[in-house]
Amino acid sequence: xxxxxxxxxxxxxxxxxxxxxxxxxxxxxxxxxxxxxxxxxxxxxxxxxxxxxxxxxxxxxxxxxxxxxxxxxxxxxxxxxxxxxxxxxxxxxxxxxxxxxxxxxxxxxxxxxxxxxxxxxxxxxxxxxxxxxxxxxxxxxxxxxxxxxxxxxxxxxxxxxxxxxxxxxxxxxxxxxxxxxxxxxxxxxxxxxxxxxxxxxxxxxxxxxxx
Length: 211
Ligand code: PRP
Ligand code: URA
Prior knowledge:
alpha/beta; Rossmann fold; two-stranded antiparallel ribbon; 6 helices; 13 strands; globular; binds 1-O-pyrophosphono-5-O-phosphono-alpha-D-ribofuranose; binds uracil
C-alpha cells in the first residue's frame, strides 16, 4: 500500500515477523532477531530506486558493462537507542553506508524529544540520508531528528520505521512533507501516554531488556 509519501511494506514475511514481535511472549533475544530480519526487508524496499551506473568488469568469460550503485555513499542515521535495532540489519545489506547517530529520548511528562548526542558523517548535503527508528508515535522524536539533520545540511532524506501511529504520520508530514515515510504497519491510535496501540510496547526496552 502506498499513500502519498507513506509506503507500507506489507509483505507477508514482514507482517508475520511483526506479529511475533508484538507478542509479549517474544523475549528480548527473539525480538532483536526478528527486528534484524524485518530490517533487511525494509532496507530492500527503501533502496529500491537507488541510482545505478555501469562499470566495466571482466567475468571469467568476457568483458562486460554491469551496474553498481552510483553517487556518494548513502548515510544511515539511527535515532538512539531503539534505532540501532533497525540500523544493524540495514547495514547488513548496505555495509558501505556511512552511519550517523542522534541521541534523543522522549521526556515522559512533556513527550518532547530531548537531544543528548549528535555525530554525523561529512557532506550530508551530497548524500541520501535514511533515518531509522522503529517507532513513530507522536513523531516528536523523528521530527526533531530530521529538523536537526536539515540544519546540518541534509536535503534528501527518507524515514524508516516499524510501526507508525496515524497521529504521528500526520504530524511528521506537516513538519517535513518532503521526507517520505516507510513503515511495516500503521497502527490504530495513541493511548493516553502516547504509546502506539496495539503497538509492541517500548521498543528500546524490548530490544535491550530494560524497563
Ligand atoms: C522511542 C522510540 C522513538 C520515540 C517515538 O524512543 O524509539 O524514538 O520513542 O516516540 P515519539 O514519536 O512520540 O517521539 P524513547 O524515547 O523511548 O528512547 P529510547 O530509544 O532510548 O528507548
Ligand atoms: N515509543 C515506543 O517505544 N513505543 C511506543 O509505543 C511509543 C513510543
